[in-house]
Amino acid sequence: MARYFDVHPEDPQRRAITQVVDMVRSGGLIAYPTDSCFALGCQIGDRSGLERIRKIRDLDEKHHFTLVCRDFAQLGQFVHIGNAVFRAVKAATPGRYTFILPASREVPRRLLHPRKRTVGVRIPDHRVAQALLAELGEPLLSSTLLLPDQEEPMTAGWEIKERLDGLVDAVIDSGDCGTEPTTVIDFSGDEPEIVRRGAGDTAPFE
To answer: How much is the pTM?
Structure first.
């Protein structure tokens, strides 16, 4: 049964955040809020957590997982980023964007796109997500909480708890999230490619 944490959206309770992070470090899979919509998250090296996300979302091996990072310095440890791309990404973070970039050696091979050797990265502008990342001290391996039979992500923590009870270990509820996932920009080629139009404004990348 999943534990349910009711967390204040502006001033997250330290005790709750610590308990959730302890669960993540122990191999737990969590559903947590971001500035776009709810996400599933586990530790980067947690092979079991990765497979649980794949199973819940019915994902194939070509799916780009996302490393949700606390800040730009942390993001820079996991991807290779040139000067021009650096400026573009820096200007759009924190925010509702996921950027696909060539991965560094810090990223486990199983998280990479099998052909491109890339990974998604993002920095959320959300206090609860940031509190989790600060306590964890490393990125959360994440994927949008969008189930195979749904057209839009669930927005309410209680609904997620009801639907995914037994499939995740914790649900963090800090109020309704949006239903629009991040905008995804692929910077692995010569020109930026808008892979998904979502919550972030695409104008800077067109």
So the answer is: 0.95
